[in-house]
């Protein structure tokens, strides 16, 4: 049933756009229907509850992010990977110079996962993909104990991205911060 699948995907895409533009509180069936160019009945037919809508939207986002970041992690496995290539990958993760609704929506969804434990497994799956990418990059750069530092690197990326979102700071700040992390070794801690 390709039509139902296309309609469902249009609804999910609309939910992510709405969340990115105006937050989760703006997600109403009427707004979704208008944004997705589907009937109001289609929204309720495909998604019985608001929770199901949010969960499926987060899972869709997670699937895309996991695929994207796993692909990037696979690219970080060759012998020619160096600090310059690491900076390029980090710039890709940073997502360019402007934040659009696609970059804002994940923050909203992760905060919602903090409020709704039913969404946490999906959020954890996405963070596992981020951790895999961080581990591969840190391993290729010869950073000691990359598995232990991966979570900190991911947290740093998210913190810098949130700072960027809130202040308009350039993406280069994120790259610089991560390059500083690559020079970190446990022996440097006080």
UniProtKB/TrEMBL annotation:
The keyword DNA-binding applies. PROSITE patterns: HTH_TETR_2. InterPro entries: Homeodomain-like_sf, HTH_TetR, TetR_C_31. Residues 28-47 bind DNA. The keyword DNA-binding applies. SUPFAM superfamilies: Homeodomain-like. Residues 5-65 form the HTH tetR-type domain. Keywords: DNA-binding. This is TetR family transcriptional regulator. The lineage of its organism: Bacteria, Bacillati, Actinomycetota, Actinomycetes, Kitasatosporales.
């Amino acid at each position: 049933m390709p039509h139902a699948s296309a309609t469902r995907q249009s609804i999910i895409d609309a939910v992510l756009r709405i969340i990115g533009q105006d937050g989760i509180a703006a997600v109403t069936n009427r707004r979704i229907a208008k944004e997705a160019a589907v009937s109001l009945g289609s929204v309720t037919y495909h998604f019985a509850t608001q929770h199901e809508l949010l969960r499926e939207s987060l899972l869709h986002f997670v699937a895309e992010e996991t695929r994207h970041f796993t692909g990037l992690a696979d690219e970080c496995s060759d012998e020619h990977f160096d600090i310059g290539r690491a900076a390029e990958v980090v710039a890709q993760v940073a997502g360019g110079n402007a934040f659009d609704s696609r970059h804002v929506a994940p923050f909203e969804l992760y905060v919602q996962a903090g409020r709704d434990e039913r969404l946490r497994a999906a959020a954890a799956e996405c963070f596992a993909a981020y951790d895999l990418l961080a581990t591969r990059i840190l391993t290729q750069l010869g950073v000691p104990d990359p598995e232990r530092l991966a979570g900190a690197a991911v947290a740093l990326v998210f913190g810098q991205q949130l700072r960027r979102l809130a202040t308009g700071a350039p993406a280069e700040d994120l790259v610089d911060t991560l390059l500083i992390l690559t020079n970190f070794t446990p022996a440097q801690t006080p």
